[in-house]
């Protein structure tokens, strides 16, 4: 390939990535599918913008090597030990119960050999880490019960990947198929010797190497060393007849519990992201659309079967693992797709002669289609099934009844998540009796174990507020996270219990104004106290004494409260509509100008000690 041609192809790759990936992420399909579709468009099946797909794919496999190195970095032994029950419980069940029926269908239904059937089954059972983690992060569900179950399944697939990477070369044509038992034993022994040598050598050599490089202090040298370790270990295993991917994975595992793990991750991540994008585009380029046109029934039939099987199995695993109906549906809708590791496994299997090119083409198409279908399964569950089944799900467990003869609390907390719990703990330590209402039954059951008076119920229901003691309470705390939900609760409280003070949690300034519209005058902006406390500490770092810093923060809080009221008057003039992006920017600019006018000089502060 001439240098000019290569430069042109790289330019086209970057152009396609810059255009396709943001569009697909904005549509909710994720970056991986964006790269795949861009590759299909640029490949021989459509516009043939890039013809030399094989050369591009060979170069792009470095991205796979870096991906597996970073995956290995995440498998710290301490982390695996803490999550062992989830990983080898729900995680293993989710992968194996999906893989077994798919392997049986491939072997008995399509007549494939056991090696091909095994790789197909596990490749399709592995879900996409990129898609699942992105969605969980966007919806703030990484710490949810179904989020932890999904993470356990993703971790288990990486643990299962290690023996699979080592086994694929032994399954290939010209290896175990033509060997006698002695030859097979020798091949396995050679593999084990090389693996042990790499593990032992890496354990005793890698940390001293990185320690020495870190002392030099040159960041580019550290990055070069990290790349050298990844590619060097990969090349050693390749020379021993094993896949490069296995070497990269092992190198990552060896450094997973080292003190340099985070720095190595930061050094490798930019290269990995770009080269993985090139790998997925190369996979898209190699997709055979003519095959899809010739065999649409086969491809779409397998795709539908994989989606249906994985959704059913994942829902069942979630229920058996203790998730409620909503959490199990979320898990099943999130992870029915084939993952990025399927492309890695199927490409390796074809390289080592375990899988034919025609089978690989069909499987690539199936994985791409399952990835394309997953955003729709997720949105269907979130926007249609969740609202439709919400009533029946609540009816499965009736709201708690609060006895009329029970002692009425001085404080009623509506919503007992993180914010409400902190308020409750403070009241408990001050021996001020309180009770709480929360619509999450798992949360209620957990908090009750510690003796707190918390009831399962919807705080927006007036009858529950009444029986929980809202009419006689000295204060009602609205601490729910969702802004619209909190507005509904405050509205009901203000209408039905107008004499009771309402203390409401505000997510931001706009939320605070809407609470003011409802007549709520005691509002706590959740970001204010923490940011002011941090600011006070920073002032002390820059030479202000403790009293000066405390008074400066109080002056600023008073100033900010005054600005909040001033902009609330402007908000009232514009009505209750949500502000535009430009209006928010204009408001922020006005706040900075006002802050500048009210700048605080430590010499101007009057202290009681002076």
TrEMBL record:
Q: Where in the cell is it found?
A: Endomembrane system
Is Transmembrane helix there in the keyword field?
yes
Q: Which family does it belong to?
A: Belongs to the monovalent cation:proton antiporter 2 (CPA2) transporter (TC 2.A.37) family.
Q: What cellular component GO annotations does this protein have?
A: endomembrane system; plasma membrane
Q: Which UniProt keywords apply?
A: Antiport, Ion transport, Membrane, Potassium, Potassium transport, Transmembrane, Transmembrane helix, Transport
Where composition is biased (Acidic residues), the residues are 583-601
Organism, per UniProt? Vreelandella halophila
Q: Name one Pfam family in it.
A: Na_H_Exchanger
Q: Quote the protein name from its UniProt record.
A: Glutathione-regulated potassium-efflux system protein KefB
The Gene Ontology biological process terms listed for this entry are: potassium ion transport; proton transmembrane transport
Known InterPro entries for this protein? Cation/H_exchanger_TM, K/H_exchanger, Na+/solute_symporter_sf, NAD(P)-bd_dom_sf, RCK_N
**Region Disordered: which residues?**
573-610
Q: Which PANTHER family match?
A: K(+) EFFLUX ANTIPORTER 3, CHLOROPLASTIC
The molecular function terms of the Gene Ontology recorded here are:
antiporter activity; monoatomic cation transmembrane transporter activity
**In this protein, which residues make up the domain named RCK N-terminal?**
408-529
Kindly give the membrane topology term recorded for this protein.
Answer: Multi-pass membrane protein
Q: Where are the transmembrane segments?
A: 6-24, 56-75, 87-110, 116-137, 149-172, 184-206, 298-318, 330-350, 362-380
Q: Which Gene3D superfamilies match?
A: 1.20.1530.20, NAD(P)-binding Rossmann-like Domain
């Amino acid at each position: 390939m001439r240098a000019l041609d290569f430069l042109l192809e790289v330019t086209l790759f970057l152009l396609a990535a810059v255009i396709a990936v943001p569009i697909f992420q904005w549509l909710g399909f994720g970056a991986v599918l964006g790269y795949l579709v861009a590759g299909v468009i640029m490949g021989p099946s459509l516009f043939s913008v890039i013809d030399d797909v094989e050369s591009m794919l060979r170069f792009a496999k470095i991205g796979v090597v870096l991906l597996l190195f970073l995956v290995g970095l995440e498998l710290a032994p301490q982390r695996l030990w803490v999550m062992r029950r989830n990983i080898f419980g729900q995680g293993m069940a989710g992968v194996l119960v999906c893989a077994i029926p798919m392997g049986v269908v491939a072997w008995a239904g399509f007549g494939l050999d056991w090696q091909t059937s095994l790789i197909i089954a596990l490749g399709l059972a592995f879900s996409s880490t990129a898609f699942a983690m992105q969605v969980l992060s966007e919806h703030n569900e990484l710490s949810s019960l179904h989020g932890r179950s999904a993470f356990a399944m993703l971790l288990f697939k990486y643990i299962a990947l290690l023996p699979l990477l080592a086994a694929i070369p032994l399954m290939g044509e010209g290896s175990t198929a033509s060997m006698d038992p002695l030859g097979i034993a020798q091949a396995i022994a050679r593999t084990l010797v090389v693996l042990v040598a790499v593990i032992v050598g890496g354990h005793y050599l890698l940390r001293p190497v990185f320690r020495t490089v870190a002392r030099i202090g040159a960041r580019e040298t550290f990055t070069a060393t990290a790349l050298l370790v990844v590619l060097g270990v990969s090349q050693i295993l390749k020379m021993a007849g094993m896949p490069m991917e296995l070497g990269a994975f092992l190198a990552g595992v060896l450094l997973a519990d080292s003190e340099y793990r985070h720095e190595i991750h930061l050094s490798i991540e930019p290269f990995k992201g770009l080269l993985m994008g090139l790998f997925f585009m190369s996979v898209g380029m190699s997709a055979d659309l003519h095959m899809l046109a010739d065999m649409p029934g086969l491809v779409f039939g397998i795709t539908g079967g994989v989606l249906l099987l994985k959704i059913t199995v994942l829902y069942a695993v979630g229920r058996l693992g203790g998730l409620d109906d909503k959490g199990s549906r979320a898990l099943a809708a999130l992870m029915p797709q084939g993952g990025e590791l399927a492309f890695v496994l199927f490409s390796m299997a074809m390289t080592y002669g375990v899988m034919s090119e025609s089978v690989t083409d069909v499987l690539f198409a199936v994985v791409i289609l399952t990835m394309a279908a997953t955003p729709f399964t997720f949105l269907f569950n979130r926007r249609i099934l969740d609202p439709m089944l919400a009533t029946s799900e609540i009816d499965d467990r009736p709201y708690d009844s609060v006895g009329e003869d029970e002692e009425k609390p001085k404080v009623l907390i509506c919503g007992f998540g993180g914010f409400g719990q902190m308020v409750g703990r403070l009241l408990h330590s001050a021996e001020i009796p309180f009770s709480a209402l929360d619509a999450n039954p798992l949360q209620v059951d957990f908090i009750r174990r510690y003796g707190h008076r918390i009831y399962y119920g919807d705080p927006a229901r007036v009858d529950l507020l009444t029986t929980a003691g809202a009419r006689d309470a000295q204060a009602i705390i609205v601490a729910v996270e969702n802004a619209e939900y909190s507005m509904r609760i405050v509205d009901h409280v203000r209408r039905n219990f107008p004499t009771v003070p309402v203390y409401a949690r505000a997510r931001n300034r706009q939320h605070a104004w809407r609470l003011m519209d409802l007549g709520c005058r005691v509002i706590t902006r959740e970001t204010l106290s923490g940011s002011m406390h941090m600011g006070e500490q920073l002032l002390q770092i820059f030479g202000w004494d403790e009293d000066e810093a405390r008074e400066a923060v109080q002056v600023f809080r008073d100033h900010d409260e005054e600005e909040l009221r001033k902009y609330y008057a402007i908000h009232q003039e514009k009505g209750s509509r949500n502000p535009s992006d430009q209006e928010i920017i204009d408001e922020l600019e006005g706040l900075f100008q006002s802050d500048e006018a009210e700048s605080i000089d430590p010499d101007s502060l009057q202290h009681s000690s002076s």
